[in-house]
Amino acid sequence: xxxxRTERIRSWWGWGWQDAAVGEAERAGLVARLPPHWVAxxxxxxxxxxxxxxxPRVRPPxxxxxxxxxxxxxxxxxxxxxxxxxxxRALRGELDAAPDLVAFPESEEQxxxxxxxxxxxxxxxxPYGGGSSVVGGVEYRGDGHDAVLCLDLTRMDRxxxxxxxxxAALIQAGALGPVLESQLAPHGLTLRHFPQSFEFSTLGGxxxxxxxxxxxxxxxxxxxxxxxxxxxxxxxxxxxxRLPASxxxxxxxxxxxxxxxxxxxxxxxxxxxxxxPVHKASRGVxxxxxxxxxxxxxxxxxSGLDPSNCRLLDEAEAAINTGRADGRAVLVLGFESAxxxxxxxxxxxxxxxxxxxxxxxxxxxxxxxxxxRSAFLRMPYVRDALARSGAIVETFETACTWRTAAQLxxxxxxxxxxxxxxxxxxxxxVTARVTHVYPDGVAPYFTVIARSRRGAEVQMWDQxxxxxxxxxxxLGASITHHHAVGRDHLRWYEAQRPHEFHxxxxxxxxxxxxxxxxxxxxxxx
Amino acid sequence: xxxxRTERIRSWWGWGWQDAAVGEAERAGLVARLPPHWVAxxxxxxxxxxxxxxxPRVRPPxxxxxxxxxxxxxxxxxxxxxxxxxxxRALRGELDAAPDLVAFPESEEQxxxxxxxxxxxxxxxxPYGGGSSVVGGVEYRGDGHDAVLCLDLTRMDRxxxxxxxxxAALIQAGALGPVLESQLAPHGLTLRHFPQSFEFSTLGGxxxxxxxxxxxxxxxxxxxxxxxxxxxxxxxxxxxxRLPASxxxxxxxxxxxxxxxxxxxxxxxxxxxxxxPVHKASRGVxxxxxxxxxxxxxxxxxSGLDPSNCRLLDEAEAAINTGRADGRAVLVLGFESAxxxxxxxxxxxxxxxxxxxxxxxxxxxxxxxxxxRSAFLRMPYVRDALARSGAIVETFETACTWRTAAQLxxxxxxxxxxxxxxxxxxxxxVTARVTHVYPDGVAPYFTVIARSRRGAEVQMWDQxxxxxxxxxxxLGASITHHHAVGRDHLRWYEAQRPHEFHxxxxxxxxxxxxxxxxxxxxxxx
Lengths: 525, 525
Description:
The structure is a homodimer.
Chain A: H1 24-31, H2 62-65, E1 68-69, H3 72-77, H4 84-91, E2 101-103, H5 108-121, E3 123-128, E4 147-152, E5 159-163, E6 168-172, H6 177-184, E7 189-190, H7 203-209, E8 226-233, E9 236-239, H8 252-256, E10 265-272, E11 274-275, E12 279-287, H9 290-301, E13 309-313, H10 315-322, E14 329-337, H11 343-355, E15 359-360, H12 366-388, E16 391-397, E17 400-401, H13 402-424, E18 429-438, E19 441-451, H14 457-474, H15 490-496, H16 499-512
Parallel strand pairs in A: 2-4, 3-4
Antiparallel strand pairs in A: 1-2, 5-6, 6-10, 7-11, 8-9, 8-10, 12-14, 12-15, 13-14, 13-18, 16-19, 17-19, 18-19
Helix pairs in contact in A: 4-12, 4-14, 9-11, 13-14
């Protein structure tokens, strides 16, 4: 799939750019860090032309047909998200779920026409942004529809209007991260929403999934930047009034934030922007153990300082990602401002960390922060390479109150470790970091690396993931802080979601999507 | 109505405590500031016992009857909120809308039983906290029910649990501001939600109406403090999981925040708390005109400094409330922290204000801030006295983006002034202040003082208010930033609310309150 702006080609089976995939030399270096008996010959990458996708079951009328493609490469690339289980299945050539058609609408009118046609023909419609879902959010798994249409929004990617005075912009939902930032830059403005998927996810995807972004505190979710949304549902159009805040009834936007394409297609939104920061300061603080680091993070989160970065890495993550070998956990603190120096705030935060047993690093950690950022963006490519080579590599995340945090992190680490041993025959590795923090709680993020058995990778991961999700549910944590529900989290989401609220959501679904064509299987059983 | 904790008696017709009402000497001083030809003999306060309320049309079964009262004083006091039009009607003895019964449940089981009974008997139920609505939120105006039950929650007013680690508490919805703060104080914690109605409004009322509170920025609405809600609807109970944040589907809490008693009765909530601030700093900055002040407020709002107080008073408000006679607008800036000194932040904010043409006051404004606060809390009592004496005195508020702010303030002031002239035969006074600010916009708050004609007060105010609301709607502002919709704003709320979202809300209403007994006439026609 060629990107018109870059001419680089996206991987159809794995993460990111095809030309950025881990090569043989790099792969050899990566697998050298795995136990030797885990390592298998890499799963080959199949040729799509050999895979014989099912023939498309529908054909839209001429005016819509020109918006759609049935090209096997495009259909294959739009079959799954980018979770470990997606990559494995793609590499195995399991593409039964491939959409019959992929549409690339360029206007709201075209989307309306496509929805009308799909409703009449009982065609499931899967709204699709960058396709970076790791929760089965863009994969059709049902059997109640006559065909599946993937609705790729990426040709609707313009910044339509900038309001410099209010520091906000009207942006089309199909804009990928770099595409929207490049249009904001000439105005000296930025959304500063930088999920790991930044290059390969869209504004609409962020909004629909309540994505987590750059800021460790305060503006943690994209939700916090929304002034208004415009949403096309099969029943009609919803456009909220553009306001900095309102007390007029329940928020319309909050119904669609997190609706994951089940209630309508978000086509554009007014977003609050930031001035580009010119003052930055950051510092690393190390701790004897993750638990002490958590206490320091809690104190900082309750101090009102609001660091833009407050990333705590446990001992293993610190070793893997920053190369340190002293067995200490590391907290990276960062502040930024477009208006005034932030050194004082950093000093205060470091003082608080030291008061909780931390040791401030003697030099600025700007280098290691930069290094960590590169490693962070490289991780999904590394995941793909390790996945091909015999390792289960996957992440999951949650949010909980501070009262539960330490116990939750410990229970998840021990419980998931036990699950890897049970499922894989030997224990794997479970690491933890903290990505977003709140005065009243925290969002821990876990990585699992374990030994896979060829042919059983997906089932093995699903068992480990179920064990992890059961622990989160038992301890009252959220099944997701920012990865969304999709299809993979549905069972635990149903346990978490209040029953009466489910009835309301179901009523909303029936009202907005009466034929049930929008992203079936997501949020609703 | 006696308050069990204070033994002070609430006014049945007007604001607050009966013994705090403006006395004759104070009233004489106040009316001396009105044009003499406006001043009329004060409307007498009727004796409830002379008013002959309609006999209650229903009688609940014995177990529920003991929770209810039909005492005329209690029914009269629960008939209206506390808007100008409410006070006038109460003084006129117009109590046709009085509820047949007022219930004081002490447990959720009792609420469930009352809702069940009301549903079977077609009795409208009006959830009632402190009764401080200024938008007709607690007044029955329909005719489709066989009787009206006012559900007074104030006996459910306990802080049930404090989580010091996460800095949060589980609080029953019927707790009035001082009642909940007095229970938090021993823990060194505070909600710091201080609406003008603080003494006479409840947590549940704040949540149901998305009340605005103490903080000028960031935590402006009570919404921002909610971890979870528990809501009893006729269809069943909704309890959200207690979390610092979540990305799992649309937020359940956001459906009930702003639902104004139409979807369920909020019975308790986990709220984020604050440590008591020990560092405070504030300063006044004056401006040649309100527009310059607005520009300074915008720059401060976009600076990331987040003052806790950023209150801009126009020339008239500054004269009335702080006694200054130099015709300048005044910005009161305040910062607070429980952890670190805030002087630097104040200095930076004052610098920004000065760069926008402000003149920093030479001494701390703590005294005038304190004076303003006393005046602020006294205002509703003063309003009642002036209303009795021949003046229309009322407020309204909104929110808009910065792009619209200056034009909106000017248009509202001139348009509402013209409306007073048309309605009252001579122009009144329209003043403006800014109570809450955002990086992308602002919440202006207007006060209208005009000459009333005895017997026509309510119709006159309604005409002025309609003119004001039409301007807000035409300029794309919100019909309310924090006063809620109630019944008085319904027409403009319907213009503001997206049509498809209304269908969803209606579906939610049908699901949660299938017999339509909850606060009929609010949010829904």
